[in-house]
Design brief:
about 240 residues; alpha/beta; SIR2/SIRT2 'Small Domain'; elongated; binds nicotinamide-adenine-dinucleotide
């Protein structure tokens, strides 16, 4: 059913969220076992929280860097990379900052919330990579000017990088099918992308464990594991080609 929908509705663009990475051992935010069950988002993931108490924010990011250090792409990431390879997915728009789509082989990935792989100095712009950042913990400072580094992720209260969100909007508007995988579709402005697809006559397919606000307007909703569902979808396409 999903394989057919993708084959018959091209171009298809994927929109992924934290749920695509939970099977890699990275917790999502809003599930009962998610990160927000343990941390207050406004304390550790907002720009005001960072300005108020950067040490507390870095304590949170140090834990996330540890989790990410051992994480590998799972069947959902691999399936999306294979769908791109087959010409069945044009690009992946992701809210994730973990870099696992690229690790799985996806080539056209739009990281609308940035990446945890680097951190930058807010004063002079010097950028450090993940390994160096880990050496500079617990409170990484710029080696040139001493200012505390900020993770290169979009925090609550910050604007999304305009080039990324503009490209994401353009892809969503021109998609015949927007394939949403593992997102609660509650975080704006990304939560508005399905609306852009629908407004131009495109359709939605949603693969998510829990219901989303767009379920009633989707052509297909599959509540279950992203890895299992997407792996099965690629298998179906392979056997029918
Ligand atoms: P979210 O936590 O709001 O929603 C995740 C959704 O995925 C939930 O509805 C949940 O039911 C579903 N889900 C969880 N595991 C699943 C699985 N195995 N298969 C199918 N569905 C599954 O996440 P969101 O919508 O991405 O929220 C956006 C915010 O979360 C962004 O700011 C993003 O940067 C951030 N985030 C990223 C990561 C990461 O990079 N891996 C991790 C946590 C949060």
């Amino acid at each position: 059913m999903l394989a057919e929908l993708i084959s018959e509705n091209q171009p298809c663009v994927a929109l992924t969220g934290a749920g695509v990475s939970t099977e890699s051992g990275i917790p999502d935010f809003r599930s009962p076992s998610g990160i927000w069950a343990e941390y207050d988002p406004y304390e550790v993931a907002s720009i005001d929280g960072f300005r108020r108490d950067p040490a507390r924010v870095w304590e949170f990011y140090a834990r996330r860097l540890d989790v990410l250090a051992g994480a590998q792409p799972n069947p959902a990431h691999h399936a999306l990379a294979q769908l791109e390879e087959r010409g069945m997915v044009r690009a992946v728009i992701t809210q994730n900052v973990d870099g696992l789509h690229a690790s799985a082989g996806s080539r056209d990935v739009i990281e609308v919330h940035g990446s945890i792989a680097t951190a930058s100095c807010t004063a002079c712009g010097r950028r450090e990579e993940r390994e160096r950042i880990r050496e500079l913990l617990p409170l990484p400072r710029c080696v040139d000017c001493g200012t505390v580094l900020k993770p290169d992720v979009v925090m609550f209260g910050e604007l999304l990088p305009s080039s990324a969100i503009d490209r994401a909007s353009d892809l969503a508007r021109n998609a015949a099918l927007l394939l949403v995988v593992g997102s609660s579709l509650e975080v704006w402005p990304v939560a508005g992308l399905p609306e852009e697809t629908l407004a131009r006559g495109g359709c939605l397919a949603i693969v998510n464990r829990e219901p989303t606000p767009y379920d009633l307007r989707a052509a297909l909703v599959l509540h279950g594991s992203a890895g299992g569902i997407l792996e099965q979808c690629v298998r179906t396409m392979t056997s029918s080609s």
